[in-house]
Amino acid sequence: MPTAIAVTGADLVLPPADPQTPNAAVLADPGARSLDDSVTELRRLVDRFGHVLVVCPASAPRAVAHRLHTVRGLLESDRIALVRPDLPPLGTAVLVRQLRQLSACDFSPGVLASAARLLAHYIHPGAVLGSVSRLDRVPVTLGSHLKSWLPGAHFAVLAGPSPRIVRVGADESDLPGPGFATRLLIARGQLATEWPTASLAPRWGVAGPVEETALPASSPGWWGTSKLVEFAAYLPDLPVLHRLVASVRRETCHWCGLELIGDRCGFCAAPLPAASAPAAAGHPR
């Protein structure tokens, strides 16, 4: 039975990549239901699927994360993993879809949960912004702040894996792209620009047509403006994702006994002993 993937917002659920991609369970807003209801909601998922991965962005309101930790504690369950990616909203939605794809494969729940950190490293999320004056999640130089007041100035911001801010039309070559084949997903806000499709996609060697989806509700707050076009370059093919995760040596968590990859268990968060730390995986082929 596939490990269940749950999310804390409906805007983190992209259309399936293929007919075999499982859906995600959208957990109710803790402000809209009682603690007992939240406990029942997660207990039913655990009873049905065995293990549950809850993706809660690092930027989510504190009340959401607090409710999840409280429910997990009340259930006294070691079958609920809390995944907290530090990605922009569209990048997080891409990660959720990749986890959904891999949940239907032969990976154990522990490997799937700890794979989230690995997969996030291969997502290149960013946005084109009309202003960076309120951007506080990516380091902004004083010069960029001053330039943001120039009429018509647009900025291309890469949130990871190597954060960068460049002015569109001036120093775009300084925006590092992935060193492997990707697809590009964009979500349009209130900024009228074709830069991601006309300039970024060719420069990064994006394969196939650029995909579009609705802008996540949390994106304007994350980027500090509603005048944006958000984008994310990512690995789209399930065989490539599978090989990437399968290429990392598996270990057994010394605390809860589940399988893991990387240096930390995705379920109990126990670190791998230093003597057993695995080597980093290379680029996917």
End-to-end Cα distance: 29 Å
| Largest beta-sheet details | 6 strands, mixed
**What's the number of structural domains?**
2
Query: Numbering strands along the chain, what is their spatial order in the largest sheet?
Result: 7-6-5-10-8-9
> What sequence of helices (H) and strands (E) makes up the elements?
EEHEHEHHEHEEEHEHEHEE
The CATH architecture of the largest domain would be: 3-Layer(aba) Sandwich
Number of helices: 8
Helix content, binned percent = 25-40%
Report the oligomer: single chain
Low-confidence stretches: none
What is the β-strand count?
12
- Class derived from helix and strand content: alpha/beta
Proportion of residues in β-strands: 15-25%
**CATH class category name of the largest domain:** Alpha Beta
**Roughly how many Å is the radius of gyration?**
19 Å
The backbone outline, from C-alpha atoms, is: globular
Write the CATH fold name of the largest domain.
Rossmann fold
Mean pLDDT across all residues, rounded?
A: 90
Structure description:
The chain has 285 residues and is α/β, with parallel strands linked by helices. The protein has 2 domains: 4-121, Rossmann fold (3-Layer(aba) Sandwich); 124-234, Hypothetical Protein Tm841, Chain: A,domain 3, CATH 3.30.1180. It is built from 8 helices and 12 strands. It has helices at residues 35-49, 62-75, 89-103, 109-121, 142-147, 195-204, 219-223, 238-246, and strands at residues 4-7, 25-26, 52-55, 80-83, 124-129, 155-158, 164-167, 183-188, 211-213, 228-234, 251-252, 259-260. The strands form 3 sheets. The protein has a 6-stranded mixed beta sheet, sandwiched between helices. α1 crosses α2 and α3 runs antiparallel to α4 (109-121). The two termini are 29 Å apart. The mean pLDDT is 90.
